[in-house]
Amino acid sequence: MARADNILNMQITIVNCMKQQWNINYSEVSDILDKYDLLSYIAICYEEYNSMGIKGILEDLRMYIDAIKEADYADEVLEQLISDLEPENLPKQYFFGTSAAIQTLRFKKVRRESVNINKSIQSISVYLVHRMSKEQRCSKEEALKKLLKTMTYELLQDKNLGLYAESPEYIWNMVQEEEAGDIESWIKE
Length: 189
Prior knowledge:
74% of the residues lie in helices and 0% in strands. By secondary structure, it is mainly α.
């Protein structure tokens, strides 16, 4: 059975368990899957989930959802604070330290977003190691060593390029193109 089929089977099993364990209907499960992009997350975690029980998987999904909720709420609060501190929204007598306060809040928002970016890069990296190990029939340690030597991995680590927002499969295709010597298609001078 192909990996995609295995992932689909896992996703179906998890969906059924979510319905039963979380005492919600399939429509609610579907809404949760869409809102938090859980099917993609399950696909990324496929290898790790294979060694976990369903309770551990559901707990991981809950923690993932909670982390997203906290990030969304924190973003809303920070945006409101920043808006409230803008000079045009303050009486003149309160303007004295606003620019420093706004910079501090913006820094905290960027820092939190940086944590999410780092998690995305980590997830893609794990996927690449697993995929390389499987495709090249080598240990995960050897796959990691090979991956670390690629330009693709270097580019993935550069947060300014935004490769962390691409799918793991897209990055895997970049690794394959690099190994085949065809990097001109995605490298811009």
